Task: structure prediction
Amino acid sequence: MSTVPRAAAERAAWLRAEIERHNHAYYVLDAPTIPDAEWDALFRELQDLEAQHPALATADSPTQRVGGVPRSDLAEVRHAVLMLSLNNALTEDEALAFDHRVAEMLAKAGRGEGPVEYACELKFDGLAINLRYEDGLLVQAATRGDGSVGEDVTANVRTIHSVPLRLHDAAPPVLEARGEVLMFKRDLARLNERQRARGDKEFANPRNAAAGALRQLDARITAQRRLHFFAYGLGELRGAAEPATHSATLDWLAALGLPVCAERTVARGSDGLLAFYRAVQRKRERLDYDIDGVVYKVDARAEQVALGFVSRAPRWACAHKFPPQEATTQVLDIEVQVGRTGALTPVARLAPVAVGGVTVTNATLHNEDEVRRKDVRIGDTVIVRRAGDVIPEIVAVVPERRPPDAREFAMPSRCPVCDSAVERPADEAIARCTGGLVCGAQRKQALLHFASRRALDIEGLGEKLVEQVVEGDWVHGPAELFSLSLETLAGLERMGEKSAANLLHALDKARSTTLERFIYALGIRHVGESTARDLVHHFGSLAALQAADEAALLAVPDVGPVVAASIAHFFAEPHNREAIEQLRAAGVQWPEGEGAARPAAGRLAGKTFVLTGTLPTLTREQASELILAAGGKVSGSVSKKTDYVLAGDEAGSKLEKAQALGVAVIDEAQFRKLLEG
DNA sequence: GATCCTCGAGTTCC
DNA sequence: CTCGAGGATC
Result:
């Protein structure tokens, strides 16, 4: 055996220590100490040294995290100490009952007065795992399996950077750490990007991705899917005394170099438990990993022993779960909806299911390609999630539960409402009904758009009412809304005289509007609020806009050939010109001559803002108006060009993006200071 | 021609 | 909120 030069051995040892120190800072403490490139350089140097002198490649070397050869199957591992499951509390009452039971049993066992102390932690939505360290060295990692026998995933777990291959000093001869392997949401996003690029199937959620990665036979694949680990308890322990409380045990594990989640506390009594539960629930969305609840554990070891076990679950611990944000349900049908522009949108009708506190029965599938991509069929069982807190989304189908008679969705070739031909340009994702205003659905949607809050804002004119006046042949275009009589309205379903009078009043109010709103209300394709505003600034009057040809329209900022053609085409249609005349005859009016000149030199001139979250005293609309009045711009998405992100409570992904791009984030108070100068 | 930035449009539930 | 696509920019 060749001897290794002493200098090389020393250099290798130094590199190993250095890399592990940076790894710990990066993966566990979440506080990187050196740039990635420098880390790479250290790592490569160590790899080279070990290649030259194989004797240096020790089992705990950081280079051993990546690699390993494919294995044929996963070996079985018998756990030295059973891996138990926890009892679940699904409601607050059940959580209260847990505390009550514990307090009562402890009182009988002779415990003194006062509320019981609990260690409170997160319940991670990942995979439970047991890490065995002997003399401080990681020797084995195993899944929970059935609790007594699990699978050996040592090679895979070695690739997880936050799992120390060697514990810090003073590790006992045998220590088993229990915890959860999970994938961070941002790492899942990155993984799915790669999957998409390669045309592979995307993972529905971090848990599935983590499970897949951990059970890979080829650890090199695991290494590419960045996993994370949080320790939350002990298995077998030899040669050291267990700390007197669970919270102290966690502190100890952290001191040994194991990652322990910082979102934990010690709470007293049921009030403390529920306060923790609620605090975590509020924070949940902002965490970078999925959790499905919290865990309460009686903190004092002695009290745990006194309480003991019932069958396979400890009496001293309990998981308090959140209402599920994801659920499975069945696709009863896939129907097609017709939008204002004739867009045909497939919508899945679902068997009602509770997700995140509401009952979901519908979920959009956006377009034909999306249906194909997710391969959703009628009769399928699907996973449903409430994305961004509100809108339900079909995440994936459960392929094992597809019935043999599941039907594929086909986009109809004729409009389901008016039977006109359906067209889908080769380069577009959306199929459209060609019926135009002949189509009842498009007529209704056009009226709803006309009456909507950001257009003419006709209060009380909702879906049901539009349905009735269109079906009843009372109204064919927007102008006819203004000639509806009290008698007609009062005769409709669910309309008394009072509601009818209110609606007439609302219509009257809507007659006085602004040119921007009016143009937006017309519902010209590609002309939304923003473009309507640009058009008004440029042309100043409706007459000037109507007279403009395509070339003149192209001179407007942010108007290109497609938008210009759409506008010119709209005003060239005689029935559109007629409709505008009728609206003016019905008394719709706006102050003329405004808008062409605007206060370009406000305090916020040239500044772009993005709003997110709920502000303490202003609504978003009010904040937008203030910004516009001061010469600033409001945009919907954060980019490098954004000057400020005005963030309130419960700010979402935009805040994260702002932080990632280094865009200034301000609150309402700072915003007011900006306004005042 | 590619890439980034916006805007428009569609959607769910209470 | 998310996706698709139009417009601007390099």
Q: What stands out?
A: The first strand of chain A starts at residue 76 and ends at 78. Residues 215 and 343 of chain A are 44 Å apart (CA to CA). Confidence is low (pLDDT under 50) at residues 67-72 of chain A. The longest helix of chain A spans residues 6-28.
